[in-house]
Amino acid sequence: MSNLSANISTNTTLGWPPYVHEPHLLRIIRLIFVSLLAILGLLGNLWVAIKVSKRRSPLSSYICNLAVADMGVLALSFPIAIIKEQMPTNWPLGSFFCQYLYPLTEVFHGASIWSIAAIAAERYHGMKIRTPSKNNGKRTHVWYILAVIWFSSFTFTSLPLFFFVKYQKVDQGKFCIVVWPKSMQVVYAVILSLLWYLLPLTVVLFTYIYISSLLRSSTTFHRQSLKHLKHTPLSFRLSATETRRMKENKRALKILTPMVLVFTITMLPLNTLRVVLSLRPELTMWKYFLVVYNLSVIAITVNSAADPLIYFIVTNNFLPNSFCQVFKWLKCFRDVDTRSQVLQRRKNCMETMQLQRFDTRD
């Protein structure tokens, strides 16, 4: 997101382009919407990270890592993107933040994307090997993978920016921009699109297709087995085993379905815009560039904020327990209201009966 937002500041140093701006009311509504989305996503990911960190499975480690990365995107990258869009001629965070902290915020994007791929790969591994290992070596292996994810994300996204991010204070204002050498921006954009979009998308799609085919074959085998071994003791044992496996496959398929859809749709605008602008930088002067940029920011925010919904499917009894507590509280309040209403009715009834008695005596 850094090189895209830097294009806005670069354009303003060359003269303000004739961008198409939305009406003032629509801009306020958009900012409120994406801000609320980011806040809800931040709180949701924080809750997930706390909840999942208590578990020891490899899948829980990847989910916790994804939650942390998404929190970084929503808490750091998102506000910077809004600042660059709203104040393109007045960078308010100073030279140190621009040159040293601003590039670091990009590390969260790569970590988030490859955490999703790691979750998909873990589900694939769980389908291939039905007796998961519970030894410490498995846990150590997961930490190695997480370390590679963060190191690779820093190397390919943040590290190059340290050499090309510049803080400029001129008559037109204060700018934090990325000054790329000739053809270097194309290389950077292509590498990021390959490593942070096409390759992880391939991993997730492959896992999705594999589990889908496994689910179909399991269903066919299950039906044929019951047909040939009907009403035998073996059929009941086979039925229970295959039913359990089919449920596991269906659960894994439910995990990957939102991952494929959300990741493919929300990350496509950013990667497309990144490659197109690296090949044709003059398109940053296009009057609708700011509209496309804002849509890309919204899509990235949705991608990070929607992940807690994916955790709802990934982890068994994760959010349902929380919802059950809420429902119990609501039911308790409802019961309190009901009891109070009953008592009030009884009181009114008693008062009415007493009045009737007095009337009868009179």
TrEMBL record:
GO terms for molecular function: G protein-coupled receptor activity. Its main location: membrane. The chain crosses the membrane at residues 28-50, 62-80, 100-121, 142-165, 185-211, 252-270, 290-314. The keyword Transmembrane helix applies. Residues 41-311 form the G-protein coupled receptors family 1 profile domain. It holds the Pfam family 7tm_1. It is a multi-pass membrane protein. It comes from the Eukaryota. InterPro entries: GPCR_Rhodpsn (IPR000276), GPCR_Rhodpsn_7TM (IPR017452). It is found in: Membrane. GO terms for cellular component: membrane. Keywords: G-protein coupled receptor, Membrane, Receptor, Transducer, Transmembrane, Transmembrane helix. Signal peptide: none annotated. The keyword Nucleotidyltransferase does not apply. Belongs to the G-protein coupled receptor 1 family. This is G-protein coupled receptors family 1 profile domain-containing protein. It comes from Exaiptasia diaphana.
